[in-house]
């Protein structure tokens, strides 16, 4: 007998993937999906859907809108999915590039002495 909640990580990933698709199609603030539509598409309802939405909300990966129970992905959610797929978020990439630039400048300064 499977443990309660053992499919929750799969469901949470499916929720994020669906919201990410809405984000790609409509943008960050217009790319919303209703709770009802999510329940239908992912075949999850009631307590199972709610606890996973609450988890994602607590982690800051989704936002829940009061109007018509709409849900959308946050910038943190986008970064989470893109990091998981191997893409580096642009802010993190800029940080890496700045650190590399500083290291190179330090090396050149030492060689010039």
Q: What is the CATH-assigned architecture?
A: Orthogonal Bundle
Major β-sheet profile: 3 strands, antiparallel
- What do the pLDDT scores average to? 85
CATH class: Mainly Alpha
Q: How many domains make up the coordinates? A: 1
CATH topology: Arc Repressor Mutant, subunit A
Structural class by sheet pairing and helices = mainly alpha
In the CATH hierarchy, what is the superfamily? Winged helix-like DNA-binding domain superfamily/Winged helix DNA-binding domain
Order of strands across the widest beta sheet?
A: 1-3-2
Q: What is the distance, rounded to the nearest whole angstrom, between the alpha carbons of the first and last residues?
A: 70 Å
Fraction of residues in β-strands: 5-15%
In total, the number of strands is 3
Specify the overall morphology.
elongated
SSE pattern: HEHHEEHH
Total DSSP helices:
5
Unreliable residue stretches: none
Radius of gyration: 20 Å
In percent, how helical is the residue content?
Answer: 55-70%
SSE topology sketch:
Layout: H1 8-26, E1 33-34, H2 35-42, H3 46-58, E2 62-65, E3 70-73, H4 75-84, H5 90-112
Antiparallel strand pairs: 1-3, 2-3
Helix pairs in contact: 1-3
What is shown here, in short?
With 113 residues, the chain is mainly alpha-helical. The chain has five helices and three strands; from the N terminus they run H-E-H-H-E-E-H-H. It has one domain: Arc Repressor Mutant, subunit A.
């Amino acid at each position: 007998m499977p443990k309660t909640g053992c499919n929750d990580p799969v469901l949470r990933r499916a929720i994020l993937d669906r919201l990410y698709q809405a984000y790609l199609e409509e943008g960050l603030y217009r790319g919303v999906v209703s709770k009802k539509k999510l329940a239908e598409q992912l075949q999850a309802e009631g307590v199972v859907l709610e606890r996973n939405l609450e988890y994602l909300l607590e982690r800051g990966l989704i936002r829940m809108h009061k109007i018509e129970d709409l849900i959308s992905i946050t910038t943190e959610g986008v970064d989470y999915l893109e990091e998981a797929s191997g893409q580096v978020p642009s802010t993190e990439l800029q940080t890496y590039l700045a650190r590399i630039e500083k290291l190179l400048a330090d090396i050149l300064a030492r060689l010039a002495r």
